[in-house]
Structures are given as structure tokens and as C-alpha cells.
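Archive entry. Fields below.
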Amino acid sequence: MLKEAKKAIWKNYQKEIANDNYFYVRSCVRQNFFPGAEATFLKILKEELNKDIFEEPSHTTCTGIGYHGDLVPFDTTMTVIARQFALMTECGYENIVPSCVTSFGLYSEVLETWEHYPEQLEKTREYLKKATGREFNIPKNLAHASDIIYKFRDEIAAKAKYKLINAITGEPLKVVEHIGCHYSKMFPHKGVGGAEYPYVLVGMVESWGGEVIDYPERRHCCGFGFRQYLVQANRGFSISSSKKKFDSMEPYKPDMIITNCPGCPMFLDKWQYAIAELEGKTYGSDGMGIPVFTFEEVAGLVLGYDPWDIGLQVHQVAVEPLLDKMGIEYDPSKKYLGINGKNLGKPEMPNVLKTCC
Amino acid sequence: MSKQITIIGSGIAGMEAAAKFSEMGYSVILIEKENKMGGHVSKWHNVFPDYKPAKEIISKLKSTLTKNIKVFYETEIENVVALDGKYYLQLSNSQNIESEVVLITTGFELFNASKKEEYGFGIYENVITSANLEEKFNSGRPIKTSRDATPKRVAFIHCVGSRDEKAGNKYCSKVCCANAVKLAIETKQLLPDAEIYSFYMDLRMFDRYFEDLYFEAQSKYGIRFIRGRLSEACENPDGTIILKAEDTLSGKPLKMTVDMAVLMVGFTSSVKTIDLAAKFGISVDNDKFIKPLDNHLNLNITNQPGIFVAGACTGPKSIAETLADARSAAIQVINYLQSN
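PREDICTED_STRUCTURE:
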């Protein structure tokens, strides 16, 4: 593989990412899947990077899952997204930052539609005005939350307490990166690095000391295709997609997986348990799995945040092997303690997939 | 008969037209941006459908350029001024030319395969283009992978950058099907133990002997044709290439590992041709190739008097078609000069 050629492609897919003053809109599902991820993002932006980032509590879904599931018509989607823009406008912001890649993709789709079909924009303004009395400005800048961390990856590296480097051997950790399909597969020029060789996560990994693995099924879906998973009869497609990726990455012995989508870490994490139960197959060393992280969690670990404060105890695949490799200090006895030391209860252990405690 | 004709581009169309003008007693100025004549054909090995060595074609065309021809190599058109029925060309070699007629034979460019990012050309070392394979044949060296192994399985991927809206080219490049079959046969001849596959959308074997080539490929050489467009190529740790496609005849997805994938790159209009068209004020069509005055009756005439076109600058053509087009243009040019 000629890595220099990849860099030439990356140069073709650079995007403008606002430097400050962000209006943040959350994901519908991430707060259940990996509850610490968004909080970690906000903490990094506010406390480490000293940025102005604001979220308005009455913002809603973007309708993404309903839209892609053919349940919500596009007119409704445009109007709901226009309402998010109205909240942004009312709060005095111009740069919108969705947490979710499906939201990011759908916002991009709506903005592209309005650019090419101005009558759709006028229609949406009319719908929103009639429904809510609100008006809105089109954002000056739309960037996914991973774009923001990518933009400031070197600032984070400068403050790093830990690196994506094996603390014992000094070797870079081998990292699988997986972007959400809706980040750039719909609009390659909206994603850093494009769709085929995306750079947004690669840039973070490289900046933080790791080495990215390019494995054959790198582009394959994680298994969270909405129709694969939301339609119960199709769930076999979901787990087989994930399994195809694990089988493909296994020979490279990855130390971890980093993702930028709400669904990808969920499915790459939880399906490792299901595959182990169904087939007795595990993909990490010694019967463990390959730890899976969101980009915010990885940034938090690099900055030295306590693993249990950023929610790593809710991961299905044990994260401790990765923490040990990075040389991160943590207290195993506090893994299942919540805020104020409250015991959250220890989950039942899997039969096949080994965990640490 | 002292009139001078300027030809821009000394590929096979420019050479053939120059020879005809020379035979008829006209003096010709041939302007070539490279340091030699022959264009793309000079880089090919053997050409379909009869495996004629490309260098034989070039050498025969060169042998006809004997008199009344002046060639400016490594020269381009800097500026064009049209005045009183004449064109004044300012050349990059600081010379100026005055000409009543100009024949544009600037040909084409090969599609830049790296634009089909999902195929990994330029990134995966064992993904090469048809032009690269011709170079390998011309070198006379054994066909090897990037890791110096003899390929056991080679795939040819048709329509790379042709009939592809995503690549910006909706048109068919016309000659790649026959060329792919020819290359597949030649590869099999050099690698008799290798399995050879060809991934196609349609096989457009439109011209005489092309169908024979296709049948020979299957019956004599055992080349396997799969109707399915490649969706992506990936690299295995050992450098072999995984191809993913849908076999549209069986209706099933297909995944195959090959040692080498050859991308059949199509024609695109050259940037320099588009620039030249703007300088002369002649039209290009949506496909960026020069637009002739009429698609049936005036294929070599443009919307500007005295500016003629021939060869692949007006769209993909085979060698035989290009040469016939050049002769046709020569007649049009001479008719124009005689009627003026």
C-alpha cells in the first residue's frame, strides 16, 4: 500500500470547520448507548479548549431514523431541522455541531436541497412559521462533532497525559477506525478525507500516537444499517455485517476500534458478545474482545480522564486491556460506582466473552 | 498550391492528415506538445483485433511524412488571433504562424483511474491500468506482481471512467471492450497457468472481427467473463486484491481475490483540447469533446470557418476510425482551401 497516495486524496477532501461558538445538537440514541461520550465532548470543548459551545434543552430529534425508515416524509424532516436552526438563530449562534452522523448527513442533505431547490427552502420557512411562529438563519458552518475534535487534535495531543502507544513496548497501538456511513458516504466532500479513505479519525489516531490498520473490509457497514437492525427479521444481516468486519480485521491484531457514529460502537461492541455466545468466537487476545470506543472517549482517555467518569463501564467488551496497554491508572473497584459513589450494580458476566471483572 | 496547413497534434490522426496534405502538394506545419510523434498509440503494444504491433502502425505513418512537413516539437499554442479569414498563432517556442486553415487533432487523455477512489489505483500496488499493462508488455519483462510473484489470477475491470455518471463521464469509450479482451488473451498467452477474469457491464464488440476475438477468448483461452460492475477493491495483507461485485447474471454478490487487477481506463477529453477550443472559439459538448458542426454530415467541420477537427478530440474512436476520420478531414480541408 502506498500511503503517500492516500495523503493526496485527503488533500482533495478538506472542509471548513468553525473555530469557536458552536450550537450543539445531541444524538437521540448515544445517551443510552454510551452515555459519557457527549458529556466528555462538552467537557473537552469547554474545559480543555476553552470554546463556547451551547445546547438548547428544547432541541429534538432530527427525524433521521424515521426518515431513513420511510416513516417521516422529507417535508416534515426539513421543518424539524429548520426548527433546530431556529433555536440556533434565537440563541445567537451560526455554527451548528451535531453529535450524530445521521443528523450530520441529514442536515447536509437538507442544506444541499435548499441550495439546489430554493423553493423547498421557502416552503420550509412557511411550514415552520405556520407551525411554530419561528424563523431561522441557515448555519454558516456545519461540522460533525468528530470534525471539531479532528480540528483540535494537535491541541489535545499537546495536553495528552497518555498516548495511543503501548506503554511497555513503546510501539504505536494498532487502531481500526470506522466512520459512520452518513458522515461522508452520502456527501464525500462534507467529510474530512472523503468517503473511501476518510481521514477524520485517522488524523486523531496519528496525532495521538497510534497506527491505523487498513483491513480489507474497512468500508463495510458496521451492522447498524437501519433496515438491518430495526426490522427484527433482518437482524441476521446486522450481525453478519459486524462479523465480516471482525473476521477481516482479526489477522492485524488490532488493539482497539475508534468510531464516530452513534450506532457503530454500539454494534461493534455488543455483537462481539453475541458472536461469542452464538459461535464461541472471540476476536481479542485470551478470549477477550477488541475494545470499541467513540472518538470522544478516546480523546478523554488521552487527556487523562478517569475511564469510569467517561462511561467506559457500560461497554460490553472490557476496556481494561486497552487501558493497561496505554498505561492508564484506574481503580477496578470503582468501575460500577456512579456519581457520589452510588453502586450501580454489577452486570451479569457473559458465558464466553472474557471480561475483567 | 502553395497554401500552408497547420495541424495541432501529431498523433495518428495528425500524422495521417499531414501525409495526405503532403501528397496533395500542400505544406504542413505540425505542432506537437511532446518530443515525438505518435500520441497514445506509440505507447501501446499490440492492437486489436489482429494484434498488429502499434509501433508498426506508427512507423508506417512516419514513413509517409516525407516532404513539405515542418514539425515543432514540445510546442503549444499560446494565443490565437483571427483576422481577415486567417489565424495568427503565437507558439510557446516564440514563433508566430499565419494559417488559413487549422486542423485540430489533439486526441484524448486516458481517464485518471485514481478518481475511482474505491478501486484503489495508486494506493494498492497490484491495481494497475490497461496503459500500465501495455507498458509491461512493451518492456518484454515477465508479468509480475508488486511482490515479484507470477500472478495466478488476474482480473480486467471494464468501463473505468466510462458510462459512469459518478466519474462525470456518461459516454461509452467504445474501444475498451475489444482492448480488454485482447489484453486478457495476451495475458493468458504470457501466463498460461493463470485464471483470467473479465468484469463487464455489456460487451460492445461492435466492429468487424471483435466478436471473433470474444469467442476466441472464451473457447481457446478459457477467459471467464462476469457481468457485473466492480463496487470496490481492497488489499489483503499479502498485497493481493479483493474485488467485490454483483454477478448480475446469477443475481448474487461476488467476492474474489486476485493477484492483479487491471482497470480498463476510458477516454476523456484533454484539458489542453478544451483550452484550445476556447482559444479558437469552437464549441465543446457536454462530454467536453469538441462538437462538430453536424453529427452526420459535417463531422470534421466546426462552428469557426477554417478550423477543422479529426480523431479522438471529437470523441472516442478506434485506430481505424481515427485514420479514416483524418482522411475525411483532409478532404474537407482541401475542399475548403480550393473553394476559397
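CURATOR_NOTE: Helices of chain B lie at 12-23, 54-63, 130-139, 176-190, 210-219, 271-280, 319-339.
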